[in-house]
Amino acid sequence: MVSVKTLVSLAGVINSSYGGFVGTFRLNLPMLPGENEISVKLGVVKFLTMWNLCLQSLYFTICVLNDIAGSNEIAPKNPPLIRRIKDYMLCTVAFPVSMFVGLTFWGLYAIDRELVFPKALDPYFPSWLNHVMHTNIMIFIVLEMVLSFRKYPTRGNGTGGLTAFMCVYLVWTFIIYFYSGAWVYPVLEVLNWGQRAIFFIVLLLFVNSLYFVGEFVNKTIWGKELRQLERAGSHKRSN
């Protein structure tokens, strides 16, 4: 019998994969002020939203495979590789990046939508797809946090993996700017270089703070199980 967790994971795969497919192959977005042909041809691939959809598709696919061939035990003696990958991905990138994408998009949208999603895109970009890309991603990752146990890695390993991922994307935005002369996000067009540096630093600090939010949420939900693991570990070391 298929578990609720597996159904949620399958729904997560469908949501992110379908959103990525429609965003990549079914949209015909116009050229906006500040853009050029290179920027337009890249389409949604230039956005962190699309990177996150790919990340979620991969993560929830791994969840399904782990349900089938791995282990969901609280403390398996020899955790399968797929389980170790799944747990590390959730902690370091899947949760913080999904929450970062959703919160920053809707936060800037509420302040001034022209900074992230100009009204000129409305005829070409359906509102439901916006929710698939920026709302559902948070819902599914929170459900995964609630339904699946994991032990967080050391903070150095966790924040290191997250920071590396975000720095790779940051380099990608600079590559696009170097070759196209256009910034990925309109908000960067209205900032000078000093303000951009501060903007990037603040966002990097914010996404890392979401790592600690995830760690806190995990400890709140699975505190009893985590304490049992700690006691069992202490007992083994004392023997």
TrEMBL record:
Q: Name one GO cellular component term.
A: endomembrane system
| Locations listed in the record | Endomembrane system
What does it catalyze? 9-hexadecanoyloxy-octadecanoate + H2O = 9-hydroxy-octadecanoate + hexadecanoate + H(+); 9-(9Z-hexadecenoyloxy)-octadecanoate + H2O = (9Z)-hexadecenoate + 9-hydroxy-octadecanoate + H(+); 13-(9Z-hexadecenoyloxy)-octadecanoate + H2O = 13-hydroxy-octadecanoate + (9Z)-hexadecenoate + H(+); 12-(9Z-octadecenoyloxy)-octadecanoate + H2O = 12-hydroxyoctadecanoate + (9Z)-octadecenoate + H(+)
Main localization is: membrane
Annotated keywords: Membrane, Transmembrane, Transmembrane helix
Transmembrane domains' residue ranges? 43-68, 88-111, 131-149, 161-185, 197-217
Topology of the protein relative to the lipid bilayer: Multi-pass membrane protein
Q: Which Pfam families match?
A: Far-17a_AIG1
- InterPro entries given in the database record: ADTRP_AIG1 (IPR006838)
Give a yes or no for keyword Secreted in this entry: no
Highest taxon of source:
Eukaryota
User: Which family is this sequence assigned to?
Assistant: Belongs to the AIG1 family.
In its UniProt entry, what is this protein called?
Androgen-induced gene 1 protein-like
Q: What organism is listed for this UniProt entry?
A: Gryllus longicercus
